[in-house]
Amino acid sequence: MKKTILHCDLNCFFASVEMLYHPEYRNVPMAVAGDPEKRHGIILAKNVPAKKKGIRTAETINEALQKCPELIILKPDYHSYEYFSERVRDLYYEYTDRIEPFGVDECWLDISGSLSYFGGAEAIVSSLLNRIREEIGLTLSIGVSFNKVYAKLGSDMAKEDDFCRIDSLDDIRHLSASKLLFIGSHTCEILKSHGIYTIGDLADHPMGYLENILGKAGKTLYCYANGIGSDEITRYDHEAEMPKSISCCHTAERDLCSLDDFKIVLTMLCDEVATRLRKQGLYYRKVHLLLRTKQLKVRTMQMSLKENSDLAKDIYDNALALFERNADFSIPYRSIGVSVSDLSYQKQYRQTSLFEESAYSIRQKKQELAMQQIRDRFGKDAIVSLRVMEDQTLSRIGLKNNEPFEEVIHQ
Fold first, then answer.
1. Is the pLDDT higher at 349 or at 1?
2. What is the pLDDT of residues 135-166, one digit of tens each?
3. Confidence at residue 321, expressed as pLDDT on a 0 to 100 scale
């Protein structure tokens, strides 16, 4: 039996939350963006008047202001966004316990078991649209289908505060292949070079042919186009659910031109990742480093540890080793990111020889826990490494007013 799955996407989420606090911005062009003085100059969300002026998500603030000089730009308030995201998810939970978040503003809901109780899919959809609007003050676009991919496509096609139902491939056959989940510009160009332009074209080609031109992704996209699989949704409150990775990335206020600059930012990112790990009781086995140059070129590298850890020092030491082996400062760096993966809830010790010490330091963990307790009580800037204080410009990252770091890898 086919399931009934919704994809719920909060419209212009960041901007919509800001307009709850600032109703005077509802009828004037307004956008949420990073701080241009700190070089986070990207449009994150915009309201409808800004959209009508041609403002696009992910373009720079300068580009947006050239189109609309009167554009009001607000800094993001992530704590408020998380608060409203949780309120919306709590409301979803009244209809089903099978909820799978897809970012802070999107969720899949499996309502298959709720249809008879609430009177069918359209009754649930109508109720959700009305309650989110009336009780929370936000609006949704909802896609309705029998799997997650088609439901996501439905929410993309739906108008604001409305829904779109997709029952079969015939409903979407005419759409560009680029509309399908996880097909980026590069993949789209490859498909076009082989005469594949629409979702129908993609669905009609044999799976083996797509694998030949796209590798393993060919099989996945064949299934997506034909509506095969992708209908399993985990429970919202499932205790076994574990993030695949935890990470922080930050764009510096100035280019990182030396190893000393790099170490300052790296120290704070590693402390933040380790803090998030310990709050969830997790240990990691792999360390990843992301580098973005001033030319916006990205490099990634990773390393596996001999035994898992939850220490900031181990993240720092391995990330620094990755950098020293694989990179230099021939081109300055605009931003760096650190992430950990291969996570588990238990510390796994390894057998060492008589003359070999374990890489995991209990003394170091006690020290980091003591520092974390001080920061939890008195703020992030209550106790910091001397290295961090060597540069007052770089050391402002994530310290003042308990500002959050950017998270770039999610569950």
1. 1
2. 999 999 999 999 999 999 999 999 999 999 99
3. 95
Q: How far is CA 181 from CA 11, 58, 140, 235, 397, in A?
A: 18, 18, 19, 22, 34
CATH number of 171-226: 1.10.150.20
**Which residues lie across from 388 on neighbouring strands?**
none
Instruction: Return the CATH fold of 245-402.
Output: Dna Ligase; domain 1 (3.30.1490)
Task: Calculate ∠ Cα 161-97-155, nearest 5°.
Answer: 25
Return residue ranges of the chain for CATH 3.30.70.270: 1-167
Check residue 198 and report its DSSP letter: B
Q: Both tokens of residue 355?
A: 């003359």
Per annotation, catalytic residue among 106, 272, 368, 406: 106
Rounded to two decimals, what is the model's pTM?
0.61
Q: What is the CATH number of domain 1-167?
A: 3.30.70.270
pLDDT class for 313, splitting at 50, 70, 90?
A: very high
Q: Based on the residue annotation, tell me whether 307 is a catalytic residue of this protein.
A: no
Q: Say what percent of the chain tops pLDDT 70.
A: 87
